Each structure stands twice: as C-alpha cells, then as structure tokens.
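Stress-response A/B barrel domain-containing protein, pasting as requested.
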Amino acid sequence: MAWTVEPKHFNRNFELRSRKLAMEEAKGLVKRMLLVKFKDGTPPAQIEEILKNYANLVNLVEPLKSWHMGKNVSIMNLDQGFTHVFELTFESAKRLAEYVDHPVHTEFSNRLRPHLDKVVVITYEPTAFST
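Structure tokens follow.
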C-alpha cells in the first residue's frame, strides 16, 4: 500500500528508547522519495528531457536542498514496474510545504503527470539507529 505523510502530520516529538537501541533523529531534515513508472511508449528522449528539468528544480526552487535520482537496476523482480526513484531533501517540513506550493514545482508537476503510469510518494524524517 502506498502512502504519503504530509507536513501537517509530522510528529516532531517522536522518540524511541530501548536498552539495546537508541534512535537519533536527524535534526529537522525531511526527505521525500518518489517511485515512478513512465507510461509505455514514452520516448527515451522525452524521459531524458523530463529528468533534466526535474534535476534543475534544485537551482530554481530555493526550499529544495538536494535532489538525487536513479534508474531501477534491481534483479529481484519486486519493483512492481517502477523505473525511476527520486530523493529530495529539505531542511524542514515547512520548507517541504513551501516547495510543494512553489509555482515552478507546480508547473513541473503538471507537465510530468501526463507521462506517468504510476507514482508512489513517501515523505519521512531520516533517523539513524545505534546500539
């Protein structure tokens, strides 16, 4: 089941304590992962152009701190057809909300959507576990 956690639902006071496991939260960072499958028949040149425009958002939309992507290379056959993954980093949930509402992001999203067969969006606060 796919789900998205929107900024208004973040619980900044979440803390897990255990004798064997302590959780250390990355202070304020928020990451958004997108898994996408482009529609069959989308020309590779068009996908390449979309990827270049998406990568350029980090230069145009100030709340976006970093952007990474990769093409699925899994051999496990568990990818459910998703072809690309994108990782976006923001300094806070507030900055993510600013990004979502930014006109350049909105314009890009409107141009991207018609080329997608399916998408999963997950937003999370990175954590590191130590014993």
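Note for the archive: The chain has a mean pLDDT of 83.
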